[in-house]
Amino acid sequence: MAYCEEIKDYEDHKWYLIDRKPSKCPNCGNKTIAKAVLGYPLEEDWYNDKIFNIGCLPTPFPEQEKFGCNTCDSRFFKDTPNARAYLNGEGEWYDQYD
Prior knowledge:
The structure is a single chain. Strands 1-2-6-5-3-4 form a 6-stranded mixed sheet, with no helix packed on it. A hairpin with a 5-residue loop joins strand 5 (65-69) and strand 6. The N and C termini lie far apart (39 Å). It has 98 residues and is mostly beta strands. The chain has one helix at 81-87; strands at 4-7, 15-18, 33-38, 51-55, 65-69, 75-78.
């Protein structure tokens, strides 16, 4: 079974730490989990169910999301020491506008 832990207290978004790709979304229950792609998408990427478009700006979380739910926009981040350090108040929050 995949490890999936919700990241608490992040506005109204559903973010999760994972050890591998989830088979279904813990938030909505759908199986529309896709690989997250950072950058400006091509037109056909908007209609590709195998891609979760992040957009052009990286997330301010220390790790970039690996997967996302195309139904409810939940995001999944790899559970790393860097991510854990941030969640324990020891790491830095990345600010893309600095």
